[in-house]
Structure formats: C-alpha cells, structure tokens
Write a structure and sequence with these properties.
Elements lengths: L1 H8 L2 H20 L9 H8 L6 H8 L3 H4 L8 H16 L1 H8 L2 H33 L11 H28 L4 H27 L4 H22 L2 E8 L2 E3 L2 E3 L3 E7 L6 H20 L7 H9 L5 H22 L2 H10 L2 E2 L7 H36 L6 H25 L3 H4 L1
Antiparallel strand pairs: 1-4, 1-5, 2-3
Helix pairs in contact: 1-17, 2-9, 2-10, 6-7, 6-8, 6-12, 7-8, 8-9, 8-12, 9-10, 10-17, 11-17, 12-13, 12-14, 14-16, 15-16, 16-17
Length: 430
C-alpha cells in the first residue's frame, strides 16, 4: 500500500487526484465543525451520551460525531444512501426506470443520478425536520428558538443543504479524485471517531469500568477481523475459459486459455450500509417522534422492538445483508450477457456447452459464491453486536466499521493500481 502511494505520488496526474481527494475530505471535516444555529450543543451531547447503544448512536458514528454536535453535516450520507436504495429498487419495479438505466447507456445513467439527487434532497428535508422535532421535544433548542417558526425553517434547511453538499462532495471525489466519493466520506467519518473511541476506552480502564484484558481481547479480535476481511476481499472463484483458434486472413487468433474471475465479496460494504440504514429507520422515526408511551403504547412497543440491541433487529439486519448482497450481485453480474459474450468470441467453459448451459452454470456458481460472501458480511457485522450484548461492552459498529475502513482502503489501493497500470509505470509493475 505504501509502495503504491509512493509510486503514484511521482506521477503528476495521479498526485493531483490524491490532493483533490484530500482537499474534499478536509472540506467535509471543516463542515463537521460548523454548528447549526439555535441549538444547545452541550444539552444535545449530554442527551447523546445515553444513546450510545442505539440507532441514533450508530448514526453519530457514521457521521463522524457531527450528529451529536448538530453541525451542518449532521445528516451525513444517510439521505443519499436512502435515496440510492429507493431508486435502485424502483429501477426493478418500474419498467421505464429499468429501460432508462440499462438501455439508454451513459445518458440513462445521468438521468438516474439526477433523480437520485432530487430524492436525496427530499429525504434530507424529512430527516432534517425529524431531527428538529427530536431536539424540540427534548428541550435541546435555545430558549428563543423553542417556539420560533423562523428557527425551525433555518435548522431544517441547514440540515438539508448540508446533506446536498455532502452528496456533491462525494460526486466530485468520484469524478476528479481517487476511489468512490461516498465511500471515502464514510471512511473519513469513521476514522475521525477512532481516536475518540480509543481515549474513551482508556478512560474507562482508568476509572475501572472496563478491564484491560477485555480491551486487549477487543484489539486482538479487531486484528483477526481485519485479516479475515483482507483474505475474503482478495478471494475469488476462477472459472476456466478456453478460446478456440480462428483464422482471419493469414493470421490465426485465439487458442489461449484464461479464466472468468468471480470475487467472493463482490458487493463490498454496500449491503451492510444499506441494511443498517433500513434497520435503523423504525427506531430513528420513533426517536424523532418521541411518542408518549401512555398515549401510544402500540407504536411505542413497535419502535422499541427495533432497538439496536434487540434480537429482532439482529435477525432482520442479517437477513437484509444477505438480501442486499444478492441484489447487488444480480445488478453487477449478468450470466446471460457473459454467456453471449463468450459465444461471440468463440470462448467456452470446458465441459459446458455454449448458450443456456453456460449461463446456467455461471448462475449456479455465482449463487454459491454470493452465499459465501453474504455469510461473511453477516458474521463480520453481527458477531461484534452479539459479543457486545453478552459482555455489556459497547462495540458499536465494530465489525461494520472495520469492514468499511479496510474495504475502502483496499478499493482505493486498487484504483491507484489501475491508474498506474494504465500508465505502464515501470516502478510499480516490477
């Protein structure tokens, strides 16, 4: 990784991309330090100390602490993620959107991206209003803003604008920087919280609320998870492909043997991000509404069932991870198209007839690989939560955070390798 960065830094074009990415991340972190007006920050942070093991606490981690500080980027990338989920599901359910995304090429993708932006702003508006109601019902607003319509408009529009700016920053990284912009912003948010978590753990050891050997086991477990993530992310199933020889004029083409790679974790961290977002929606809505249990017992019980530490939350969380993993693989990998491409280029899988048998074989193999990847993601995401519930130690987003950090780091390294390979950089290729 360090050698890749060193070689990439020597190339002016790639160096500009790296500096541009770092600049955008710096702007994002500066935005996380700008508070929204009319909010009592001290009261809000005191309120969030009681929500460490809840969905709102999880959102605070995903935002890099901006949620508990009520900054302009408090909503982080959640509106964009929710919008992406909605649009991708609608692309399957609505034929017009499906044709737009598949048949219209680059122009269709631009239209889908524009629709996603509008939906992001709408969701940001709803979440901003919900966050405002949460602060108002808990007396976190400044006294002059408690019943002020103007203050409500300013707060909600500031949150919404912040989510739109984050979306724009992510798109700029994707277009002009290194790696996926949204993933890089999420990576920066989680990394920013690690020193705070480490200091808090050391303080807990000093006061006696946390045993040192438990922290040591947590560190060793984190290292083991990192090794597992790296191993699985680099693992792939290679299907052998043989290309037949053909004569064009006086030249002979083909005849070589190659393979069709299938990564075990093809969808990366997106299934976990999407699953955590959907699972957290009921509890987040309940927190925003702040319903009276005596007046609304059924709704209160429903929102409480989806608490971060509940068994139902864990079960639904795991099932959604598996479902989204299959969903993403189905979007990215089309066995029929691959089979047709192989047949057009006189390529065959040894022992498998071209056409439908080839596509069926690829589908069957892909299904097995996807299941292994889904189980891996579920284990990484769920095991730290189970251990935290059994031991009483807060390991909030432990596995998920590590997966995002390692996954984004590996993807960024691959992006740099791709740029270097494209330029035939001798020092890198050797």
């Amino acid at each position: 990784m360090l050698q890749t960065l060193r070689n990439a830094w020597r190339v002016e074009e790639i160096r500009k991309k790296i500096l541009f990415t770092l600049l955008i991340i710096l702007l994002y972190r500066l935005g996380n330090a700008i508070p929204v007006p009319y909010v009592n920050i001290a009261a809000l942070q005191t309120y969030f100390t009681m929500l460490q093991n809840t969905v709102l606490g999880m959102l605070d981690v995903m935002s890099g602490g901006a949620f508990s500080s009520a900054t302009i980027f408090a909503l982080s990338i959640q509106p964009y993620i929710n919008a992406s989920i909605i649009i991708q599901l609608l692309c399957i359910a609505i034929p017009a959107l499906e044709r737009m995304s598949k048949e219209e090429g680059e122009e269709g993708k631009k239209k889908i991206a524009a629709i996603t932006r509008y939906v992001t702003v709408a969701i940001g508006l709803l979440q901003g209003f919900g966050f405002y109601m949460l602060m108002k019902s808990n007396g976190i607003l400044a006294p002059e803003a408690q019943n002020s319509v103007w203050a409500a408009i300013v707060i909600v529009l500031t949150f919404t604008s912040g989510s739109a700016i984050i979306m724009w920053l992510g798109e700029q990284i994707t277009e002009h920087g290194i790696g996926n912009g949204i993933s890089m912003i999420l990576f920066a948010s989680i990394i920013a919280r690690l020193p705070v978590s480490l200091v808090q753990s050391i303080r807990n050891i000093i006061v006696g609320s946390l045993q040192w050997w438990i922290l040591l086991l947590m560190v060793l477990g984190a290292l083991a998870i990192i090794v597992l993530i790296v191993f699985v992310n680099d693992s792939e199933r290679r299907i052998p492909v043989q290309y037949a020889k053909r004569v064009v004029g006086r030249k002979m083409y083909g005849g070589q043997s190659t393979h069709l790679p299938m990564k075990v974790n093809m969808s990366g961290v997106m299934p976990i991000i999407f699953a955590s977002t959907l699972c957290g929606l009921p509890n987040m809505i309940g927190s925003f509404l702040n319903l009276d249990a005596t007046k609304h017992p059924y709704w209160t019980a429903f929102f409480r069932v989806f608490n971060y530490n509940s068994v139902l939350y864990l079960v639904v969380y795991v099932l959604l991870i598996v479902a989204f993993n299959y969903f993403y693989v189905a979007i990215q990998y089309n066995p029929v198209d691959i089979s047709n491409q192989l047949r057009k280029n006189n390529g065959t899988i040894p022992g498998i007839r071209p056409g439908k048998p080839t596509s069926d074989f690829i589908t069957k193999t892909l299904s097995k690989i996807t299941l292994i990847g889904a189980v891996f993601l579920a284990i990484v995401a769920a095991v730290p939560m189970i251990i935290g519930d059994l031991t009483g130690v807060s390991i909030q987003l432990g596995g998920t955070s590590l997966l995002i950090i390692v996954g984004v780091a590996l993807d960024t390294a691959r992006s740099l390798e791709g740029y270097m390979t494209a330029r035939h950089h001798k020092g890198f290729l050797e």
